[in-house]
Amino acid sequence: MIEILEGAEAWSRLSGPQTDVPGPKNNLADTVREILGQVRAQGDAALRSLAEKFGDASQGPIAVVQTEIDAAGDSLSPEARGVLERAAGNIRVFAEAVRDALKPVRLERDGFTVGLDYRPVSSAGCYVPGGRHPLPSSALMTAVTARAAGVASVHLVCPRPTPEVLYCAKLAGVDSVFRAGGAQAIAALAFGTESVPAVDVVAGPGNAYVTEAKRQLQGRVGIDLLAGPSEVAIIADGKADPSRVALDLLAQWEHDPKAIAWLLTDDRGLAEKTARELDARSSDADLPAFLQDTLKTSALLVFESLEACAEAANRIAPEHLHLAVENAGGWKDKVENYGALFLGQDATVPFGDYMSGPNHTLPTGRTARYSGGLTVLSFLRPQSWLEVGGGRARLASDTAAFAEMEGLLAHAKAARARG
Predict the structure, then answer these.
(1) Distance separating alpha carbons of residues 392 and 188, to the nearest angstrom
(2) pTM (2 decimals)?
(3) Is 322:342 a contact under the CB 8 Å cutoff?
(4) Do 88 and 201 sit in the same domain of this protein?
(5) Residue from 155, 255, 320, 360 carrying the catalytic annotation
(6) Does residue 320 have an active-site annotation?
(7) Does 161 lie in the same domain as 122?
């Protein structure tokens, strides 16, 4: 049964790291470094041999032919296609709304004009995991967002692309799909191979090898973020439905053996009822066997007030924060650190995982304290500009004086030459 901690014990549980913060482990980092070097040197041959080595080998060439992508929807039911199409539409509308909110800046000053424009990168690579479950949702979240940002060339990699993944690639309008996974797929997107083009930005969630590859290649390519195992923190009051709370906790735990979920409440009775619900439901045959292990890594924490729960959530800085309380909107300004916020008992996190529109690629491991999730901004570059006209004497003299303070005399002379 899951642990219930109260008062000082609950606060003590938050004193150390709350999650498995993404970070290189020596053996993992070395293995990934070898994989990157192999792909850089051997290209497609390395992709094939590494796929065989790690059990990712699939039928067909590395590049998925366009006719296979075009026909992917034929094997899906009309209901399945409809769900994927509606999800793509919601993600696209939201991404475009974010893009349209980014207005160029133009500011007239004394003798000069400055501005800021947003320009998309030329190419992007979208990683879609192919582990225990196919993730067509990740195909939509990454590729649709890249297209909405205006990226001209979008490519998708997946070790074993299912018809659902290929249909999502078609809905997103990607240029190409490649059968490649793990660190080797990230390397292919960074360096390029005979089949896979090198890109400017790599986006999408993955396992520890994918995350470490993105870490090591950051700088050669842009990345969205370094995401670890899934997390949720649920703040619930005494009026929350313990059955729903238990389901929401289980929904995050089933992502990954290292996933973590917290219940933060001011009501001991709710914690006890939720624990009983979890105990009853965790033996469900449809849930993964590793749930018994993930239950041990999390806890139901009982605090003295909802204000204390909000403070605890800010310390955790979870990937997902769910406010399952009355007047949830009134608590929105009391929480600060999260990847995505879900307001009210009906706003379950799975709505955000699939259908509502905002991206599900989010910061984990307390990185929500300083970073956000995948948006069109992940594919846009803010570019400033300067235009100088008449009346620039003050700009020239002030620049020269500043440069002289730093001892950069050529800078000063270049400025004075414009005065």
Answers:
(1) 49
(2) 0.93
(3) yes
(4) yes
(5) 320
(6) yes
(7) yes
Catalytic residue among 254, 255, 319, 360: 319
Nearest CA to 2 among 302, 215, 376?
Answer: 302
- Selection from 343, 301, 310, 330 nearest residue 7 by Cα: 301
3-state secondary structure of 94: helix
* Under 8 Å between Cβ of 221 and 249: no
Same domain, 172 and 305: no
pLDDT block averages, 10 residues each, the chain of length 419: 87 68 73 97 96 81 95 96 98 98 96 98 96 87 98 97 97 97 97 98 95 97 93 97 96 85 97 93 73 73 97 96 96 96 97 97 95 97 96 96 98 96
Instruction: Please check whether residues 169 and 251 belong to one and the same domain.
Output: no
Q: Examine the residue annotation and report whether 360 is marked as an active-site residue of this protein.
A: no
Instruction: Give the residue carrying structure tokens 């749930």.
Output: 291
pLDDT tens digits, one per residue of 31-52: 999 999 999 999 999 999 999 9
Side-chain half-sphere of 57: how many Cα atoms within 13 Å? 9
CB neighbourhood size of 137 (10 A): 21
Q: What is the CATH number of the domain that holds 9?
A: 3.40.50.1980
| Residue 32 resides in a domain | yes
Amino acid letter, residue 69: I
User: Which residue, of 178, 198, 223, is where some domain finishes?
Assistant: 223
Structural contact between residues 311 and 262, judged by C-beta atoms closer than 8 angstroms: no
Residue 330 and residue 310 in one domain? yes
Domain that includes residue 134, residue range: 26-223
Using alpha carbons only, give the angle 57, 61, 65 rounded to the nearest 5 degrees: 130
Regarding whether 185 and 71 lie in a shared domain, the answer is yes
Domain boundary among 168, 195, 223: 223
* Number of domains observed in the structure of the chain: 3
How far is Cα 113 from Cα 390, in angstroms, rounded to an integer?
11
Residue 252 in domain: yes
Instruction: Identify whether residues 269 and 194 lie together within a single domain.
Output: no
Q: Which helix (H) or strand (E) holds 387?
A: strand 380-388
Give the chain's end-to-end CA distance (angstroms, integer): 76
Instruction: Let me know if 286 is exposed, middle or buried by CB neighbors in 10 A (0-12, 13-18, 19+).
Output: exposed
Residues 324 and 177 in one domain: no
- Show the tokens assigned to 133: 């479950």
